[in-house]
């Protein structure tokens, strides 16, 4: 067995052992496709380091459950191979069968497209960046999938009418709203899986045409994605506030103690965070200094008028800052307790209708009026 095959075997074993992949066809695909072929131009390995195939620990880093950033422009990551467990969850969410027609928005390295094609899906994959498209095509050719995945250069907003209709659209880049073109290009019964901005995160939503709006969205899973270019990332008046970077949220002046002795795990915390965003459009992410705010940051209700606001930590404690700190703290405490009173709903318990927003010439469909279903 080659070093790559052995590391891949252990990587799959760990993903399965940790409960991150369960569908046997997805397990098989992860066991077959060599991820290193898709990151041959290297990736960001922390600090100033760019890791490449000549580095002794290259394969070890490739076969971890980590995203690999493969392109950075002006200090901002713009392309990557997404986190394997997230890819697995989204692919499982698509319910692929041999012959399923899939449109992927954001081909990136091509690894996700290769996994889906290995499962027998007919994949069309679009990316906005010409160099990314060239590299993905070359990688797919190296693993013998050039004829199976149709990689197109273009703005994913437009979808790809040439190969429509699709049974599923999978979006692997963060959006503020869904393109109506994707809904038009779906076959009957088809749906879109897309990470749509919600309270400073990009949880994956399952979107279907119809319902009481242009379409309906349902929460699927928590996720983090880099943001799309173009109309897919348009701002609109009711959009959630942009996430706040470290140092942008002031030092807290008001504290409320923990609600839970054992803090919520990351999944439950994101369930709480999603609910806060479903009830209040002031919710977003704020990174925090290591001191008063605590840890890497999390969910805040932002006071955009006066500055500051209130942050909610995983143990249910609250830190608030700014001239309205007391009021914001009380509001976020009420939202926390409402989540508990409602039976601590998970992300998948929420649904919303979609309405048009953004540029009227290139509208996006944004979820509005989240309700527990
Ligand atoms: C996280 S990467 C995708 C990961 C990829 N699926 C993989 O398996 O490696 C996001 C990609 O979306 C692309 N992108 C950003 N905005 C886009 C847009 N409007 N249309 C199409 N692709 C876009 C970026 O160029 C980048 O390659």
UniProtKB/TrEMBL annotation:
Q: What is its EC number?
A: 2.1.1.77
Q: Does the keyword Methyltransferase apply?
A: yes
| GO cellular component assignments | cytoplasm
A single GO molecular-function term is:
protein-L-isoaspartate (D-aspartate) O-methyltransferase activity
Residues that span the membrane, as ranges: none
SUPFAM superfamilies in the record, alphabetically?
A: S-adenosyl-L-methionine-dependent methyltransferases (SSF53335)
Q: Does the keyword Transferase apply?
A: yes
Which EC class is the enzyme in?
Answer: transferase
Q: Which UniProt keywords apply?
A: Cytoplasm, Methyltransferase, S-adenosyl-L-methionine, Transferase
Q: What does the entry give for GO biological process?
A: methylation
Q: Where in the cell is it found?
A: Cytoplasm
Can you tell me which family this protein belongs to? Belongs to the methyltransferase superfamily. L-isoaspartyl/D-aspartyl protein methyltransferase family.
Its recorded name reads Protein-L-isoaspartate O-methyltransferase
Organism annotation: Plantactinospora soyae
């Amino acid at each position: 067995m080659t070093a790559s095959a052995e590391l891949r075997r252990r990587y799959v074993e760990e993903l399965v052992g940790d409960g991150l992949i369960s569908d046997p066809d997805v397990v098989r695909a992860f066991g077959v496709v060599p991820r290193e072929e898709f990151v041959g131009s290297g990736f960001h390995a922390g600090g100033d380091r760019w890791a490449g195939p000549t580095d002794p620990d290259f394969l070890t880093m490739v076969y971890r459950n980590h995203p690999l950033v493969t392109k950075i422009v002006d200090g901002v990551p713009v392309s990557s191979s997404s986190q394997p467990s997230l890819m697995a969850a989204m692919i499982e969410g698509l319910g692929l069968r041999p012959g399923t027609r899939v449109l992927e928005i954001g081909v990136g390295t091509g690894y996700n497209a290769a996994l889906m094609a290995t499962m027998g899906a007919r994949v069309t994959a679009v990316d906005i960046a010409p160099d990314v498209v060239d590299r993905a095509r070359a990688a797919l050719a190296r693993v013998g999938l050039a004829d199976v995945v149709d990689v197109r250069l273009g703005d994913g907003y437009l979808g790809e009418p040439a190969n429509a209709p699709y049974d599923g659209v999978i979006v692997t880049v963060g959006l503020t709203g869904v393109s109506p073109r994707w809904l038009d290009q779906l076959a009957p019964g088809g749906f879109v899986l897309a990470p749509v901005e919600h309270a400073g995160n990009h949880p994956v939503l399952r979107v279907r045409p119809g319902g009481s709006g242009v379409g309906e969205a349902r929460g699927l899973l928590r996720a983090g994605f880099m943001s799309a270019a173009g109309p897919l990332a348009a701002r609109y008046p009711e959009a959630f506030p942009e996430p706040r970077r470290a140092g942008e949220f002031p030092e807290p002046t008001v504290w409320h103690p923990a609600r839970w002795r054992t803090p919520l795990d990351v999944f439950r915390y994101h369930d709480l965070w999603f609910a806060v965003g479903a009830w209040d459009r002031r919710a977003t992410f704020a990174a925090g200094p290591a001191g008063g705010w605590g840890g890497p940051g999390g969910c805040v209700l932002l006071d955009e008028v006066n500055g500051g606001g209130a942050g909610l930590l995983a143990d249910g404690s609250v830190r608030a800052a700014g001239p309205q700190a007391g009021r914001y703290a009380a509001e976020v405490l009420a939202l926390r307790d409402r989540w508990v009173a409602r039976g601590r709903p998970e992300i998948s318990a929420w649904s919303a209708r979609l309405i048009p927003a953004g540029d009227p010439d290139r509208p996006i469909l944004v979820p509005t009026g989240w309700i527990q279903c």
